[in-house]
Amino acid sequence: MFKHGKLTEVSPSDVKLFGQMANLKLKNPALKVMLSVQNGFSELVNSDDATIKKFYNQAIHYLREYRFDGIDLDWEFPRANEKEKYSRFLKGFRDAIINHSQNSLRPQLLLTAALPNNVRKLQNYDIDTLNSTLDFATVMAYDFHMFIKNADITTGFNSPLFPPANEKKIYSTVGLMDYYLNTGFSSSKLLVGLPTYGRTWKLKTAENHGVHAPAVNKGDPGPVIHRRGVFTYPEVCSALKNGSHYVWDSEAEVPYLYNDLLWCSFEDPESAANKAKYFLQKCGGVGVWTITFDDAEGKYSNDSQKFPIITAVKKVLMGADNKDSSPVSQPVL
């Protein structure tokens, strides 16, 4: 996180985790480990030039100290009056990274960012600046349909590949990525984001359980993370094993499940692989949110595959499940 103009850990225990993550590079020297930062952006970009310059130097030293290969900026989201300030911040950060690399004779640190699924919010970013300063960016192509209090509550897809019936194209992964590409954003720098979690609703009636069915609230908590409105993939698998009905939507090319008053839109290995195949030659790769919501130990998947969603994506990107294309080296986050 950013705090008082400095890059710092959220809690002291994070430092131990930093070391564990960096040590993974001993097993895979090609692995790049990034530090993702979410809080404190507004305070930082609104600081004076001296404070921001001091931050660049401190952040670079911090990343090197803990053996990170770069930093991912997950600002959700700049306001309209911060567009120019964020652009200036990114340009300065890129220059500082280049200067550090030249002076230290070490490889440049990576500078990346997460970008919104909302076209209106995207207006607060300067595309030319993103293109020139970032190594790559992950488009958060999920949370298209969420529970909103005091709104007309209906079920809907969290991350459809294609727009379902009666919905605008922009509220789909294909529509959103097309929009980004049409802005002139470099396709090789864009990663399509996909979720390992599902969004849940509590239906108004058990009899009406399709897409756009009336709902009254977020779904009840699941048995793993105990969070209303969200199912991890293990919770999805558990629900299916306990009598929930699986439905594949051929228009959106994603599944959903229902059982009594429970309704959940989710990603599974098939839908994730389909997305990876569709964007294989269109974008720079795939970003996954989040690894911890996949089935890490393979306890819930039918074939006992560890990380089944991420594995399905990896097979496509690395060529094992894509016989029509030669192996590629797009990043998987």
From TrEMBL:
InterPro entries xrefs: Chitinase_II/V-like_cat, Chitinase_insertion_sf, GH, Glyco_hydro18_cat, Glyco_hydro_18_chit_AS, Glycosyl_Hydrlase_18
Coiled coil: none
Keyword vocabulary terms for this entry: Glycosidase, Hydrolase
Record-linked Pfam families: Glyco_hydro_18
Keyword Zinc belongs to the record: no
Gene Ontology MF terms in the entry: chitin binding; chitinase activity
Domain GH18: 1-320
Domain of life: Eukaryota
GO biological process: carbohydrate metabolic process; chitin catabolic process
Gene3D superfamilies associated with the record: 3.10.50.10, Glycosidases
GO CC, one annotated term: extracellular region
Family membership noted in the UniProt record: Belongs to the glycosyl hydrolase 18 family.
Name of protein: Acidic mammalian chitinase-like
Organism: Octopus vulgaris
